[in-house]
Amino acid sequence: xxxxxxxxxxxxxxxxxxxxxxxxxxxxxxxxxxxxxxxxxxxxxxxxxxxxxxxxxxxxxxxxxxxxxxxxxxxxxxxxxxxxxxxxxxxxxxxxxxxxxxxxxxxxxxxxxxxxxxxxxxxxxxxxxxxxxxxxxxxxxxxxxxxxxxxxxxxxxxxxxxxxxxxxxxxxxxxxxxxxxxxxxxxxxxxxxxxxxxxxxxxxxxxxxxxxxxxxxxxxxxxxxxxxxxxxxxxxxxxxxxxxxxxxxxxxxxxxxxxxxxxxxxxxxxxxxxxxxxxxxxxxxxxxxxxxxxxxxxxxxxxxxxxxxxxxxxxxxxxxxxxxxxx
Amino acid sequence: xxxxxxxxxxxxxxxxxxxxxxxxxxxxxxxxxxxxxxxxxxxxxxxxxxxxxxxxxxxxxxxxxxxxxxxxxxxxxxxxxxxxxxxxxxxxxxxxxxxxxxxxxxxxxxxxxxxxxxxxxxxxxxxxxxxxxxxxxxxxxxxxxxxxxxxxxxxxxxxxxxxxxxxxxxxxxxxxxxxxxxxxxxxxxxxxxxxxxxxxxxxxxxxxxxxxxxxxxxxxxxxxxxxxxxxxxxxxxxxxxxxxxxxxxxxxxxxxxxxxxxxxxxxxxxxxxxxxxxxxxxxxxxxxxxxxxxxxxxxxxxxxxxxxxxxxxxxxxxxxxxxxxxxxxxxxxxxxxxxxxxxxxxxxxxxxxxxxxxxxxxxxxxxxxxxxxxxxxxxxxxxxxxxxxxxxxxxxxxxxxxxxxxxxxxxxxxxxxxxxxxxxxxxxxxxxxxxx
Lengths: 327, 436
Known about the structure:
Number of strands of chain A: 0
Distance between the termini of chain B: 94 Å
Mean pLDDT of chain B: 88
Strand content of chain A: under 5%
Helix content of chain A: over 70%
Order of helices and strands of chain A: HHHHHHHHHHHHHHH
CATH architecture of the largest domain in chain A: Orthogonal Bundle
Strand content of chain B: 5-15%
Structural class of chain B: alpha/beta
Largest sheet of chain A: none
Shape of chain B: globular
Number of helices of chain B: 19
Low-confidence stretches of chain A: 1-28
Mean pLDDT of chain A: 84
Number of helices of chain A: 15
CATH superfamily of the largest domain in chain A: MetI-like
Low-confidence stretches of chain B: 1-35
Number of domains of chain A: 2
Distance between the termini of chain A: 24 Å
Number of domains of chain B: 2
CATH architecture of the largest domain in chain B: 3-Layer(aba) Sandwich
CATH topology of the largest domain in chain B: D-Maltodextrin-Binding Protein, domain 2
Largest interface: A-B, 34 and 39 residues
Helix content of chain B: 40-55%
Radius of gyration of chain A: 25 Å
Oligomer: heterodimer
Structural class of chain A: mainly alpha
Number of strands of chain B: 12
Radius of gyration of chain B: 25 Å
C-alpha cells in the first residue's frame, strides 16, 4: 500500500524548485556558471534524497519486483524449485470461485463503506464545527474507533451481533422484529461487516473533514452572506462544499483504499464464510499465500489488487482533480 | 556521620554481594563450559495457549534426566498454520529447529517435501516397541507417504459437551445423554422449546473438514479410495453424513454459528449440547465456571461396528540431519512421547495420552482421571480413533476449505445433501493429484 501513498508529488528529486529557478532566471548569463549551479544543486538534491531513494528501493521497489516475478511462476512456499508458467495463474483466477466471490464482495463492501462513511463523517463534521461547545469531546468520541485495536473491537462486535445472546438481537426480539444471524448468514454478513467498516472509518474521515473545515476562511462566509446566501444550506453548498474539494478528494482516495484493504474484521469474525460470502481480496491473498502456501498464485492476486488500487487512484486523481477548484 | 558509615557499610556489603554473585554465576556457568561437548538442539511447538505448560513440564523433566543434551525452545508459534509456515520458511533458509511439533494433518506435507526425518530406522534400533508404548495404532498417526514422519505427542477426538442445568430445565435426564443422533435431535427440539433464545445443539462443522470426517467415518466412510486416485466420500456413507447434518438444521434447529459464537452461546448457558474437540475441555470448563453444571460424554454412535472417529492433535517431528543432533533430537522426541512425557502432557492440557503404557497402566493417569471426570470422555473413544485424513498433493489444505464451503450450503439450507455431495466430489476431484 505504501507504493500508492508514498508516491506523492513531493517526491520528485529531479525537478527541484531550485533548478527551475536557475533555468528561468535571466540574471544567470554565463553558461559555465549556470551549468555549475545546476550540477551543484542537482547533486545536492540527489544526495539529500538518496536515503529516501535507497529505502524506497529496498522496502518497496524490490519486493514489488519480486512479487511481479513470482506472479508468473508456480512457486510454492517450501518447494525446492519452481517453473515459469506465464499467465497460468491469471487463467486460474478466471475459473476460481473463491477469487470471483472475493472480487465481488470487495466491490460491494467498498461501495457500501465509502459513501456511507464519507457522508456521515461530513455531516458530523459540519455539525461539530457549527456547535459552540464540546468540539474536542465529540472529535475524541468519534475518533475512538480509529485508535482502538480492530481485532479487540471485533470481539466486542462478535458479542453485540451474536445471533442468540447478542444485545442487538435481544433488542430486536423485544420489539418483535426478526433476528437475523448477522455474521452467520450469507445474506447479511457483508452488510454487517460493512457497518463495522463504516464505524471504523467515520472517525478518521471526520478528523480530516474538521481540518478541512477550519481551513476555510471566515471572510468567505461573510462575503456570501452579503451576496444573499442566508440559509445554512446555501452557505454549505456555495462555500463549504467547493472549498472542501481538495479534502474531499483526499478523503475519497483514503477511504476507498482503506476499504479495499479490509482484512482484520473478516479474519476475526467470519474467516470469509459462510461459503465465501465474506471472502475479500486481501484475505484471499493471505489464504492462498500463507494457508495454502501457493506463493505464485498469491502474488498474481496481489498484482491484480495493485492494478485495481492504482486504477482507482488514476481515475480519482485524473477525473476528480479537474473539478477540484482550490487544490 | 552515622548515616555516612551506614552507607559506606552498605556499599561494601553490596560490593561483597556482587562479588559473591559473580562467583556464583561463574560456578553456575562452569557446568555449561564443561558440557560444551553436550549436543544442543532447538525445539519448536505451536499453540502456546494450550501447550506451554505441558511443554515446559516436559522440558524440565527431560533436562533433569538427560543432562548431556541441551534442549531449548525457539519462540512458539500461535497456531499450527503459523508453525507449518515457520518450518517451511526455515527449510528454505536452512535454519530449521531440530525438533518441531506439527499438526497431525500437516505431517504428510512435510513427509512429501522431504523435510521430516524418517523415524523408522531409529525405532528399529530400539527393539521391542511395545515396551516403549508405541502401539501400531499410535505409530500409524505419524505415518504418511511411506515415511514414519512423526510420533504423536497429543491427540484428541470429538466429544459431546452438555449443559446439564439446561437439559434438566427442558425435562431431560443429563445422566442419560443420547447415544444416537436421532435422540440428540429430539432432545434438541425440547431445549429449543424453552424459548428465550435457547438453542438445542451445535455440531462444530466450520473451520476444517475434521468434524465432517467424524460424521463420514462414523458411517464407516472414507475420504479417498485406497490408491488415492479418486474421491470415495460420494457414496452412501457420505450422503448419510450430509443428510444427518441437514437433519440437525431442519429438525434439530441447529443455528449457524460463525467463528466462536457457539462457545460464547454455550458459556452463556444458552446452548444445550455441543459437539467438538476434547482439546477444549479445559478452556470450556474455565469459561463456564460455575454458571451451570457442565458435562462431557462420548459422541453419539452412528455405526457401532464400522464407525470411527478422526484424530486431531500434534506430533513430534525431527528435522535435524546432522548425526549428533539427530541422536539428541531422538532422545528428546522419545522422552516427550514416552509414558512419562505423555502423562505430563495430559495433566497440563486435557488431550488424550499417546503412549499405550500410560493408557493401560493406571499408575500414570488413574488418579488424574478420577479427579477430572470431564477428561474421561475422550479416553473412552480411543479404540475408535483413526488418523485425520491428510489429502495428497499440493492442494491438501485447500481441499478442506472446499468441503467446509459446501457444508455451509447445507447448514444455510441453500442446497440439498444430494446436490452438495455431487459438487463436493467434483471440486475435490479437481484438487487431488491426477494419476501418472
